[in-house]
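seq as requested:
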Amino acid sequence: MQNIPDIKLGIVAVSRDCFPIELSQKRRSRVVAACLQLNIPIIEIETIIENEKDVLKALQETKQKGVNALVLYLGNFGPEGPTTLMAEKFAGPVMLVAAAEDTGRDLVGGRGDAYCGLLSASYNLGLRRLQPYIPEYPIGDPGDVAAMLGKFIPIARTVEGVRNLKIISFGPRPFDFLTCHAPIQPLFDLGVEIMENSELDLYDIVQAEKGNPEVQRIAEEMAVELGGGNTYPELTEKLAQYEYALEKHMEANLGTSRYAAFANKCWPAFEKIWSSALPKRRRPS
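struct tokens:
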């Protein structure tokens, strides 16, 4: 299964109605072209946001094109209300950037005041209690903005992963290792789901896969991957059984989440019981 977010980044331009909409459209297209030159995957949203109805159109277009992370691009001053409303209504990670002026020789039809617009948008984001990503220096020419978009992709992947994550744990948090007694409330605040299981549950699901032909297939893949580093070949089948049991448990219990991570007790009693046949020379920690 796909357990790492696949980011499909879209860019939507905004335009204040007292500025030429063509300015935002032209500047957005230049950013897209710069992204292509840098091999940064980008999906161009044709709808330009001037008002709230445009927000609905842009949201529909992002959905149709499969966009799950969004760049709000101020090609000119931009309307603070609709711009921040788009950031609020879009379900995935959001970034705000703005265009630098093309030239000081055309400050009538070619003046965008996008930096000033970004300051106003930032204030409105605070009023809505939103926290989109804004680079430290968020204005630039098309090449600058494209580079910012490239840096946003791993940030968006992290945000998307955390917002749709379930942590599946096995084993209690031990009394003699108090650092493991971290509160789970901050994880819920981030949108992370938690599923806590006992070590007996772990033993049960691993034992249930004994003799499963899928275990042998995984063991063979492990041996190929390890190559000359496979210094404990007698363990690969046990480890393959363990891996397959966890993957199967993850798929059965993912629920409303999209991604999963395991947090298992690092010196479980399960290890002593199930792996009693481990070589005497070394035991995994």
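Residues 277-285 have pLDDT under 50 and may be disordered.
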